[in-house]
Amino acid sequence: MEISSVEFRKIRETFRMSQSVFGQALGISAAQVNRIERDKRNLTDRVKRTLIDEFVLTPETLAETLAIHDRYKRPSCG
């Protein structure tokens, strides 16, 4: 299953987790989470597998998670 940097961020935001807490769940630093979200670092197979396992992601649950994010995301100010 492919997970883009944008989808990676949306998963974290849907679960209302800080980069620090999300990183702890995945076994990486908050700085690494930030770099993945900004597409400055690739999502490794190990981190992707941990993400899939920790959040019980299937193609269906990933699609549902992204739909929830898009439906309830607060509009940006400005």
Structure described in brief:
This protein is mainly alpha-helical and 78 residues long.
Q: Helix and strand layout, with pairings?
A:
Blueprint: H1 5-14, H2 19-26, H3 30-37, H4 45-54, H5 59-72
Helix pairs in contact: 1-5, 2-3
Multimer state: single chain
Q: Give helix % range.
A: 55-70%
Span of the ends, CA to CA? 35 Å
How many individual helices? 5
CATH architecture assignment name: Orthogonal Bundle
Number of strands: 0
Question: Can you tell me the CATH topology?
Answer: 434 Repressor (Amino-terminal Domain)
Question: How would you describe the shape?
Answer: globular
Give Rg in angstroms: 12 Å
Global mean pLDDT: 94
Low-pLDDT segments, ≥5 res? none
**Overall SS class:** mainly alpha
Give the helices and strands as they follow along the chain. HHHHH
The main sheet comes to: none
Could you state the CATH homologous superfamily? lambda repressor-like DNA-binding domains
Q: Which percent band covers the strand fraction? A: under 5%
Task: Describe the 3D structure.
One of its GO terms (molecular function) is DNA binding. It comes from Fictibacillus enclensis. It holds the Pfam family HTH_3. Residues 8-62 form the HTH cro/C1-type domain. The chain is mainly alpha-helical. It has one domain: lambda repressor-like DNA-binding domains (434 Repressor (Amino-terminal Domain)), CATH 1.10.260.40. It contains five helices and no strands. The chain has helices at residues 5-14, 19-26, 30-37, 45-54, 59-72. Helix 1 (5-14) packs across helix 5 (59-72) and helix 2 (19-26) crosses helix 3 (30-37). The longest helix has 14 residues, at 59-72. 15% of the residues are buried. The mean pLDDT is 94.
